[in-house]
Structures are given as C-alpha cells and as structure tokens.
Amino acid sequence: MAHQLVLVLDFGSQYTQLIARRIREQSVYCEIHPYTLGADLAKIRAMAPLGIILSGGPNSVYDEGAPHVPAGLWELGIPVLGICYGAQLTAHLLGGKVDRADAREYGRATVRVKTTDGVFRSVTPGDELAVWASHGDHVEAIPPGFVHTAESDNCKFSGFANSARKIHCVQFHPEVVHTARGAELLGNFLFGICGAKGDWSMASFVDEAVARIRAQVGSTDSGGRVICGLSGGVDSSVAAALIHKAIGDRLTCVFVDNGLLRNGEREQVAAIFRDHFHVDLRVIDAEARFLGALADITDPERKRKIIGYEFIAVFDEQAKTIQNAKFLAQGTLYPDVIESVSFKGPSHTIKSHHNVGGLPERMNLALVEPLRELFKDEVRQLGLELGLPRHMVWRQPFPGPGLAVRCLGPLTRTRLDVLRNADAIIEQEIVAAGLYESIWQSFGVLLPVRSVGVMGDARTYEEALAVRAVHSRDGMTADWVQLPYDVLARISSRIINEVRGINRVVYDITSKPPGTIEWE
User: Fold this and answer.
1) Per residue in 418-428, pLDDT tens?
2) What's the fold here for domain 5-193?
3) What integer is the mean pLDDT of 276-299?
4) Given this model, what pLDDT does residue 350 score?
5) 151 is a catalytic site residue
6) pTM of the full predicted structure?
7) Which CATH fold topology does 411-507 show?
8) pLDDT band at residue 474 under the 50/70/90 scheme
9) What residues does each domain of the chain span?
C-alpha cells in the first residue's frame, strides 16, 4: 500500500525532526530530505507529495551561499507551508522583502491571529496564541497576492498566505511543544489544505514491513538465514519480533551477556524471545572475556572501543556456526538515516556511538533494517502491536557499553554488582512513583570516590553513587528531572541500607548541554 506523502525539506533547523514527528503523530506519513531535493522538480513531481513543508534554518536568505530552492517549487500546484526560514525564503523569492529585525524573537512570543485563512482556519480572528519563535530576520513586506494572517509585537508578518496558490507561511515553530495549538495548526495544513486522509498507522505498517522483509530475504529457506544481535533494548527487540513474524524460524538471535547488563536482563530476554515467541535464541556467556579485556581500564573511550571490538569478535564467532547466514538485522531508526543525509551532516563526534559498526563488512552479510522509516515513539507503538510486553517496549534507553560507562574507574565484578543492585532500586522506586514512562532515562552512576560515613555507630569508608534522571525527546538535548523529594529520599535510604559498598547518594542536576546524559 502506497501511503500519502508529505515532504519536509530541511534547511538546517534544529527542529526539523520535530516537524516530521508531529506530522506522523497525526497519522500522516512524511519524509525529510535535504533542501537540495527542491532543485529536482521532476523528482518531486514523481514523488507526488500531498504537501511540502519548508523547515527553519540558521541562515539569512540574503546571505551569499544561503540555501535556496528554485521559484518553480511554488509553481507545482502542491500546497506549501513555510516555517521561519522557509517563510522568509518564500517571501524573498516571490517578490516580498526580508531584512534584519530590529527586535529579534527567540523563545516564547504571542501571536495575534488576523484572519481565519489556511493554517489559522480553526482560530477565531483576534485570538492570541503563545508560540515559540527563533529568528533574527523578519519579513518586512509580503509578496504580491498574499494576505496578512498573523502578527506579534516584534514581527508584523508572523503569518501570511496565498490561499489560491495554496502557499502558507508562519514565522514561528508550530512543531515545538511550547507553541499552543501547534498540532492543530499543522493539522489544518495537513487535512484542510493538503486533503490528507491519515492513512499511516503501525497496524498497516506491520503487514507492509513483513512483505518487504520477505521480498528481501526470500520466502523460503533457500533465501538464507537472518542473524540479529539482541540487546534487550527496544529497537533490537522490536526488529527481532517483526522479522520473526515475517520469516519465523529462519531468524537466529544472538544475545551476548558481557557482564555489563542490568539485573535480570539476560533472564528477561530469554523468557520473552525463547519461551514466548519461540525464537532461535543463542545466549552467549562472555562475562569473563569482557571483564578480562577491561581489567584496569579507566579511560571511557578505551572502554567503549574494547567493548565494541569484543562484541564484534564474539558475534562473528557465533555467526560462523550458523549455516546459510546471509543477512544481519539492525534496529536502525529514521533519525539515524536523517542524520547521515541531513542539511548539516553528521554531528561532531563527542564520544563513540554505542551502535557497533563494522559487522556487515566483516561478515559479508546484507543488512535488514525494518525500522529505518520509524521514530522511537513509533517503534514503541509497533512493539505493542507485535505483542511485546509493555515493560519491554517502554524500557528506558540503555547505552550499548552497558554499565561500563556508568561504573567510573576500574571495572570489577564486585563494583558492577554494587551498581547493578543500586540501579535496580532506582528503577523500582521510579516505577512505584508512576514516573518511569515519563522520564527519558533514570539510573545510577558509581563513582570511584570514597567518603567517610557512620552506620550503626561504626565508621564507614565507601563509594558514592550519583542518581541521574533526565527528560528528553531524542537524547540530543536533555533537562534534569525535578524528582519529588520523597522519591529521592526513598532511593537514597534504600540504597544506603540495602547495598553494601555505598554510603553516600547525590543527585545530578546537570542538563545536556553542557553535560552529556551518560557520565562517560
């Protein structure tokens, strides 16, 4: 089934992925492409999008070398929504005027709606909307034939449109959660202007994905086996369940217990995939191998590289024992795909990525990536659709190197067990408080710092544990969670009383940036 498509052209905005997610949330399929696609009008016609959204961006439209698209884009007869830079580019190329603003708008602003035209069709004229702005330029004059639809104190033309040409522009970000009724404004564009039907759902995706997997790997044993590295995380678990639905026992999952896992993780994965789904699951006990390789290693980057190297080696050894293995399954998501082809290109490397590269080339296997069209929230919906238990689908992200990057200093079985037990208490208390699914990540970090304490009238000299809890949408930025004091008190009391080796608990209130989510 071919879904209706909305095309998002990326001019470099930090919010471009949010545009796509907000559209998908309204059951409309969309794709993000670099703005350079706009120069290929024939290809855009062939893609037959219902609508085109021009994202924001950091440039000024009048700067030399600023990203542009040909004016013919607005002549295709396809509805266009310009957001911030996209709005300014529309004005600039269609006969309006853009200039540096006397008073820039960054952050919260108030927009007054002047007319119920286009994206504002469901808003009463004169109403004020709290919006999120991010621009230093503004449209000083709108193009001929356009009408003025919204304004703010610092931006006269916060909205303008030409309904006859199906072109609509706003100089604020409806995709950002801080914009009141932002989803409604996007919905007005999608359904009122583009005529979207809302035909994108995880239920329909399952059947389509199954068909694609079977077409790629073949429908019989002669097509070869698929190997999946199962970590117990959401992405690999959902990918494995989907592929198993498509090809059954031609899937072999390999779960490597590297000794860096959370409490009960190995048993949980085995219970779900081996006992419930009846997947061919191989559990490899490699704790001694990994901890031996990591002995006396304290540098975070060396830890990551050693873990990656050993994982590839273990996985490769197992793959050689699987007859007719021709494919490797990976839980690649849409943000990973976007990042590799986006306007800005891959981000500067702060630390080695937790996904392990090099496997397909080393093993000469073709990649199967059934989730590469999906965002994280869609993957969770898909997992529920496939019958995975909610506690697995909504599990918080866990780093590929596991507890190695949360156990600062030397890694020993004793210190890892201390951290595992403390981390389990944090999870239990966060779940009991009803906060687990609303928090991006909550965990403990064992510090190689000893302090003096008193327990039962006796002096102690033990390590400290930092509790970390953050809110985030995609892990790129994060704010620390203001956990209730009673929750923090229970976490601290239980850890100190129940976990030998820790006598002090602190709470990390660092956002990202300037910090990172993980400590290493």
Assistant:
1) 999 999 999 99
2) Rossmann fold (3.40.50)
3) 93
4) 37
5) no
6) 0.79
7) GMP Synthetase; Chain A, domain 3 (3.30.300)
8) low
9) 5-193, 202-393, 411-507
Which residue among the candidates 30, 84, 155, 407 is catalytic per the annotation? 84
CATH placement of domain 202-393? 3.40.50.620
Q: Strand pairing of 280-285 and 251-257?
A: parallel
Burial of 471 (0-12, 13-18, 19+ CB in 10 A): middle
pLDDT number for residue 358: 52
Q: Which of 173, 253, 310, 462 is catalytic?
A: 173
CA distance 369 to 372: 6
d(CA 21, CA 30): 9
Average pLDDT over residues 210-218: 93
- Cβ-based burial of 491 (10 A; exposed 0-12, middle 13-18, buried ≥19): buried
Question: Which pair of structure tokens corresponds to residue 377?
Answer: 């929230």
- Contacting residues for 441 by C-beta, under 8 A, at least 6 apart: 396, 397, 468, 469, 470, 472, 517
Biggest CA pair distance of the chain = 83
429 is catalytic: no
The question of whether 427 is a catalytic residue gets the answer: no
Number of neighbours of residue 122 by Cβ within 10 angstroms: 12
Distance, in Å, from the CA atom of 501 to the CA atom of 180, rounded to the nearest integer, reads 49
Res 157 pLDDT > 60: yes
pLDDT of residue 221: 66
Distance CA 368, CA 240 (A): 11
**How open is the CA angle 33-39-42, to the nearest 5 degrees?**
95
Catalytic residue among 105, 175, 462, 518: 175
Nearest-CA neighbor of 31 among 56, 52, 1?
Answer: 52
Contact 124, 158 (CB under 8 A): no
CATH topology agreement for domains 5-193 and 202-393:
yes
